[in-house]
């Protein structure tokens, strides 16, 4: 009896251990499934329009603070050389003034002109090599938050103005990896946001213009018309049909011929070009007022920026007379203008592609190169 009781107790204990182990496994598996579902939902959200916009904004902000941390304290390698050159020029001018007789003005002027010309030549050479003079002026900070945001946008949009570049090795490597991730992300942003803008613009365009649906007969109706007219044409050529005989249209059942097909309405290419031109002209007026540019220069800047050409000869916020706060606000608005303009450009290209494709399709049907599929 005692051994049987002990054996039953041990069996119950082993059963409880197995049940606990199974419960732990089920709990762990349920937790893993919840984590997987959460990851799938987060990934799916990031591929939606709102998720992509949030992702591109977050990626830009993180990149801006990363480049500020890497480049804020970096000095240009030519700064010390420029300081030495300027001090040497000042000392040489003092020596000329001190050793020459003040009454000998012509000799003094000749020596001073030669010294100043040499200094200007060296400064032009340094400026071409990237020196901008901001290291010596604490009020002129290169890597402010708006400037860093603008730099990040010019990386993944491939505009690359070139007015702000990294100086440290870490900043250059970070730029390479930032572009490798940012460029595909920008393409995803343009595709998703361009698609939703295209859908919204097409709906608004159809409501405002009240475009009717383009009617097109079914494929069986076209085949029936060809089958009836072909023998008549051949007989007319042979003279078998008398002149007073007319061809009577045949009444057919719509169900036998096939339903009437409506081509989807598309936005015209002209409307897309008007939208793009209006956006460029609006930006040109805005930047012309801010930067004291001409309207041609403003249009040139907007056009080259939106097409990611980005020569860098015109960049907002480069005017010396403007304060740092004014420059920062202009850079932020310019960044928003570029992101919105890229999405608008993708929208217009999407609509123009659809419009051209539908026109080619209609032309192919008229020429007999394309035939409609008959629904089985």
UniProtKB/TrEMBL annotation:
It is a multi-pass membrane protein. GO terms for biological process: stabilization of membrane potential. One of its GO terms (molecular function) is potassium ion leak channel activity. Belongs to the two pore domain potassium channel (TC 1.A.1.8) family. The keyword Membrane applies. Pfam families: Ion_trans_2 (PF07885). It is found in: Membrane. The keyword Transport applies. SUPFAM superfamilies: Voltage-gated potassium channels. Residues 140-197, 276-355 form the Potassium channel domain. GO terms for cellular component: plasma membrane. This is Potassium channel domain-containing protein. Keywords: Ion channel, Ion transport, Membrane, Transmembrane, Transmembrane helix, Transport. The chain crosses the membrane at residues 44-70, 140-161, 173-191, 267-287, 299-317, 329-352.
């Amino acid at each position: 009896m005692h051994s049987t009781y002990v054996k039953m107790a041990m069996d119950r204990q082993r059963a409880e251990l197995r049940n606990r182990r199974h419960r732990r496994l089920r709990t762990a598996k349920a937790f893993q499934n919840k984590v997987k579902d959460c990851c799938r939902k987060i990934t799916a959200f990031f591929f939606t329009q709102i998720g992509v916009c949030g992702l591109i904004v977050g990626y830009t902000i993180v990149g801006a603070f990363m480049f500020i941390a890497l480049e804020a304290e970096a000095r240009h390698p030519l700064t010390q050389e420029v300081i030495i050159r300027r001090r040497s020029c000042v000392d040489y001018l003092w020596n000329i003034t001190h050793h020459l007789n003040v009454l000998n003005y012509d000799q003094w002027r000749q020596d001073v002109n030669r010294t100043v010309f040499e200094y200007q030549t060296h400064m032009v050479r340094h400026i071409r090599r990237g020196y901008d003079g901001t290291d010596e002026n604490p009020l002129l900070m290169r890597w402010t938050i708006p400037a860093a945001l603008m730099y990040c946008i010019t990386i993944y949009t491939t505009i690359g103005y070139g007015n702000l570049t990294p100086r440290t090795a870490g900043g250059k490597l970070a730029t390479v990896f930032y572009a490798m991730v940012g460029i595909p992300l920008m393409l995803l942003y343009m595709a998703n946001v361009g698609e939703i803008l295209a859908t919204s613009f097409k709906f608004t365009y159809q409501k405002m213009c009240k475009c009717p649906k383009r009617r097109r007969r079914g494929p069986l109706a076209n085949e029936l018309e060809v089958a009836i007219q072909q023998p008549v044409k051949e007989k007319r050529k042979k003279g078998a049909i008398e002149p007073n005989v007319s061809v009577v249209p045949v009444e057919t059942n719509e169900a036998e011929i096939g339903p009437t097909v409506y081509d989807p309405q598309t936005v015209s290419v002209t409307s897309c070009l008007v939208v793009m031109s209006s956006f460029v002209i609006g930006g040109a007026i805005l930047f012309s007022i801010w930067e004291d540019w001409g309207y041609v220069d403003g249009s040139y800047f907007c056009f080259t920026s939106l097409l990611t050409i980005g020569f860098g000869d015109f960049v907002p916020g480069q005017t010396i007379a403007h304060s740092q706060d004014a420059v920062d606000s202009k850079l932020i608005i310019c960044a928003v203008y570029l992101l919105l303009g890229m999405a608008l450009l993708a929208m217009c290209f999407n609509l123009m592609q659809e419009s051209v494709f539908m026109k080619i399709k209609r032309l192919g049907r008229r020429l007999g190169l394309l035939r409609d599929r008959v629904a089985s």
